[in-house]
Amino acid sequence: MTQGLHLTADLYGCAADHPWMTCADALRQACLDAVTQCGLHPVGECFHRFPSPAQGGPGGVTGMVLLAESHLAVHTWPESGLVTLDVFVCNQGQDNRSKAWALREALMKDLAPAQASLHALERGLPEA
């Protein structure tokens, strides 16, 4: 078993009016709920909303959940309907790969992108 699994998703065509696109609190709660439902363990988090276009900013949200197993990062660009997801889990002590896949899928399902570019990378030490 590798030391970790790193999943990414570039989600295109997400609805700009979806609450997660511009509301840090909504995105935060959704991420924490999904993390817990997938059997992962949050140990910290930080979410930030950028100023709205009317205030000279993009209006998107950047958020991160620090996990006992590693991390989840989410970035939104409502002006272009783009969301990026980054899920990394370590496999120290147990295989968390299925939890990482479930977390990425749970967040993608609610965002309902028109198109997605998905990647998976096994990381860590080579097998002995």
From TrEMBL:
Q: Does the keyword S-adenosyl-L-methionine apply?
A: yes
* Enzyme class name: lyase
For this chain's UniProt record, which GO biological process terms are given? spermidine biosynthetic process
Q: What EC number(s) does the entry state?
A: 4.1.1.50
What is the superkingdom listed in this entry's lineage? Answer: Bacteria
> What are the recorded GO MF terms, alphabetically?
adenosylmethionine decarboxylase activity
What InterPro entries does the record point to?
A: AdoMetDC_C (IPR042286), AdoMetDC_fam_prok (IPR003826), AdoMetDC_N (IPR042284), S-AdoMet_deCO2ase_core (IPR016067), S-AdoMet_deCOase_pro-enz (IPR017716)
- Keyword list, A-Z: Autocatalytic cleavage, Decarboxylase, Lyase, Polyamine biosynthesis, Pyruvate, S-adenosyl-L-methionine, Schiff base, Spermidine biosynthesis, Zymogen
- Show the coiled coil region(s): none
* One GO cellular component term: cytosol
Cofactor(s) recorded in Swiss-Prot or TrEMBL: pyruvate
Q: What is this protein called?
A: Adenosylmethionine decarboxylase
User: Which organism does this record belong to?
Assistant: Aquabacterium lacunae
